[in-house]
Design a protein that fits this description.
Layout lengths: L3 H19 L4 H18 L5 E4 L2 E4 L17 H4 E4 L2 E4 L3 E2 L5 E2 L9 E6 L2 E6 L3 E2 L5 E2 L41 H7 L9 H5 L21
Antiparallel strand pairs: 1-2, 3-4, 5-6, 7-8, 9-10
Helix pairs in contact: 1-2
Amino acid sequence: MYGCTDLLAHIAATMLDDDDDDDDDDDDDDGKVDNDYKSLLINLDCGSNGVCESGKCHCMPGWTGNLCDQLPCDARCSEHGQCKNGTCVCSQGWNGRHCTLPGCENGCSRHGQCTLENGEYRCDCIEGWAGSDCSIALEMNCKDNIDNDGDGMTDCSDSECCSHPACAEHIMCLSSNDPVEVLLRKQPPSVTASFYQRVKFLIEENSVQSYAHMDEYSEK
């Protein structure tokens, strides 16, 4: 069994002998052998991060690889990733420093594609599904008077249908103003104002809702 140093010397001597047998006067070949020998020294050298034992490099703590020139990863990395010089590169669908965190929750519930974006996996849901794991059904048919997504609301009563042309003018889809913005545009009521006077801004025209009218209410 050759040690690292003896092995290199043996290989180099063999290369030199072979070269001498071929042509003792060929200087170009001698240069090639020297370069090959240097290459072997570099490739088999354990460097400053390991020692050669029984013809193999035994790395110091914190280093790994055949030449002890690679940084190791946590042992958990091998379960769902590959170690690349100290960095655990996760397989599709896994996240985290050691690739131990599921990247796409519930496998996107079979309603989406798990994709990598900015170093993180996420679900791209197919049409009709939403949520971080694509498990939330959306109301897609907005003219059949059926609660297709099982949330208790049908057609235009479901906010998911508000982008549908059939619901553009539906009362439940008309946008409303922010109450704070409405208050900032108005003179604040006096300290002696009645309850009705203090809250009537809620039902005034162009206020925060569109389905109630002033004439339906009274100060009394």
